[in-house]
Amino acid sequence: MDFAAALSGAEDEAAAFEARLQPVYSEAIRLAFGMLRNSALAEDAAQEAALRAWRSRRNLREGTDLRPWLLAIVANCCRDVRRSSWWRLGGSPTPEGAAEPAAPNASEHREEIYDLRNALQRLGHRDRLVIVLRYYLDLSHEDVAAITGQSETAVRARASRALRRLRLDLAAEDDV
Amino acid sequence: MKERLTPDALRARVRAAIGEPDLTGGGFDLDAARARKRRWYDLGLGAAPAPVRVSLVVALAGAVAAVLTVGTVLQLRSLPKPAGSATGPAGTSQTTPSPSAQPTSGLVPLGPVVDGFVPLDVTAVSASEWWVLGSDSAGCMGTDCTRILHTLDGGQTFTSIPTPSGAVTGLRFLNPEDGWAYGATTVWSTHDGGAAWNATSFGGMTVDELETYGAYVYAIVEDTTTPATWSLERSPAASDGWQVVSSLGAQQPGNLNVHGDGVWMSQSNGQGVNVVLASADDGAHFAQSSICPGASGVASLYDVSSEDLWATCAMGTSEDVLRSVDGGATFTEVQTSTSSGEPDWGTIAATSASDAVLAGTSLRLTVDGGQNFQQVLNGYDWDIVGFTTAEDGFAFSYPSSSRGTPNGLWRTDDAGAQWNEVQFP
């Protein structure tokens, strides 16, 4: 989908922008939540990203796809939040409780999931971003590469390193 | 937790660990999002101070002029020039004589970024969103060469935004919408992210410096009639309404800093008497404190918070580094006449009361309140711009042999320990 071309030809540019954004907006909020683990901040970050996208709409190159572009801006907004003096000085909200584990044998892994939650928060921005995009939003390596501006090979390598840092491993060798 | 998981099990575990957001709003609404953006900036995410200090402002004014004027040789880092009678700030409020606001005609249109972009000023509202004022190339002359580049991804990509048609020498953005470009006698404001610029003139008076923080934008304005006098003016950030908030007398002020309700400047009589003017009420009233006795001027002044400030004194052949922990009421030397061969025009910017970067013939980092400085980069002359966050900051490099126009914009994302040159298209 060529976002820039779709907007430029629209009679009501704002309405067209909103319409194009809606299908990916919930994904933007989920990405922000995965990075920040606070619903209110996640909504703010997604809104801020959408506003930045709106302001930059006329500077888009032809052929730009909205989804990776918006999610990349969301990731930057989340990075800004975690780097803000407000966050660093203790303003970061208490992470919201996660839902009950979804796996069939989840109850056996409650403690592991709690550890994983904390370990995710300790990951660096880029590692956490790849994990959230790949395993929380369930995006392909190609999509993650488009959002992070890396090659697919680099994304696989980073995901592998991040998983090792999380002390997780995959049975499927070809997944990362 | 070392174990072998299937991809599906891994996804399930990550999702369980993160959970799902508890959403209160519906889909995206552009108008509602604009209204809510204030909360974002209330977190300090948009009002981050990214001040360019006086030495750089003077440098940039000279640098732009150097670009625009063939064969003109300019002093890059002018220290406060000698002034006449010593008149302190009166602290009075009055309506500015004749600032006039008018829509700018003939915006330099948005266009492609050409090869050889020369950065001259930078302003940022976050680690990822910043604007760079510059010229299309060192050989390009005239106001048509001036360009403002905008990045949303921390400098990975840039787009060009409309630029006021005039000799722009400085640029500040308070948030993604509200920004100001300024030149010799004009301030251009935008409240839509640079799509449109409105010009305000000050009755022929000169705009020396401009800084923004919170709800206001401040400018040091010089009445160049003999004898020259200076005043501090300000305008609400969200609209254009400049008013004089304080008369500063006949000694040239510089090093404008704004943080919260605090406003700081330095003044020098050019004969070794230097003071810091500190206001805790948005510039309405100033208290004076002595600084840099015997120095030819205050080379730089930088606020970290309302209490913590750093300064450098121009000692002729070297410089002293000072700190204040009481909002500028008193300054203590932490490094006397740095013996490392640093020049006396070095500038300083800090991320905390203990961590600062000193720029001169090298970039030097201290993490112990200025007791020790470790060189982190050399090879050029340097001017530290400032920090947008506790980690993200900018510096300009200049050719050591002929300091005229910067030859590079450098960025750190680890509070000054490592620097990378920003690559322009």
Counted by DSSP, the helix tally of chain B is 3
Order of helices and strands of chain A: HHHHHHHHHE
Strand content of chain B: 35-45%
The spatial strand order of the largest sheet of chain B comes to 2-10-9-8-7
Give me the count of strands of chain B. 30
Show the largest interface.
A-B, 75 and 59 residues
Write the layout of secondary structure elements.
The complex is a heterodimer of chains A (176) and B (425).
Chain A: H1 3-8, H2 13-36, H3 39-55, H4 66-83, H5 85-91, H6 110-122, H7 125-136, H8 141-148, H9 152-165, E1 169-170
Helix pairs in contact in A: 2-3, 2-4, 2-7, 3-4, 4-8, 7-9, 8-9
Chain B: E1 4-5, H1 7-18, H2 30-42, H3 54-68, E2 99-103, E3 118-124, E4 130-135, E5 146-151, E6 159-161, E7 170-173, E8 179-182, E9 186-190, E10 198-202, E11 206-213, E12 216-223, E13 229-236, E14 243-249, E15 253-259, E16 262-268, E17 274-279, E18 287-290, E19 297-303, E20 309-314, E21 319-324, E22 332-335, E23 347-350, E24 356-359, E25 363-366, E26 374-377, E27 381-387, E28 393-398, E29 408-412, E30 420-421
Antiparallel strand pairs in B: 2-10, 3-4, 4-5, 5-6, 7-8, 8-9, 9-10, 11-12, 12-13, 13-14, 15-16, 16-17, 17-18, 19-20, 20-21, 21-22, 23-24, 24-25, 25-26, 27-28, 28-29, 29-30
In short:
Chain A is mainly alpha-helical.
Commentary on this structure:
- The complex is a heterodimer of chains A (176) and B (425).
- Chain A is an all-alpha fold and 176 residues long.
- Chain A contains nine helices and one strand.
- The longest helix of chain A is centred in the first third of the chain and has 24 residues, at 13-36.
- With 425 residues, chain B is mostly beta strands.
- Chain B is built from three helices and 30 strands.
- Chain B has a five-stranded antiparallel sheet. In chain B, strands 3-4-5-6 form a four-stranded antiparallel sheet.
- The chains are: A mainly alpha (176), B mainly beta (425).
- Strand 1 (169-170) of chain A pairs parallel with strand 1 (4-5) of chain B.
